Amino acid sequence: MRDFLLKRGIDASRLEAVGFGRTRPLVQGEGEEARESNRRVDFLFLDLVDLVPSDLR
Predict the structure, then answer these.
(1) Domain extents for the chain?
(2) pTM
(3) Whole-angstrom Cα distance, residue 18 to residue 42?
């Protein structure tokens, strides 16, 4: 996901990628269904000023 955003012009200094792997699963288990459910990307927006149009602030 980080590479995707970089290729679309997001400055690298504005991104931080952290992998949690097996340490924070949403679904316990080793089966394909559990792995599929745990394959995800979470976003944490720290500064929304640049994301929200000025007329909506």
Answers:
(1) 2-56
(2) 0.54
(3) 10
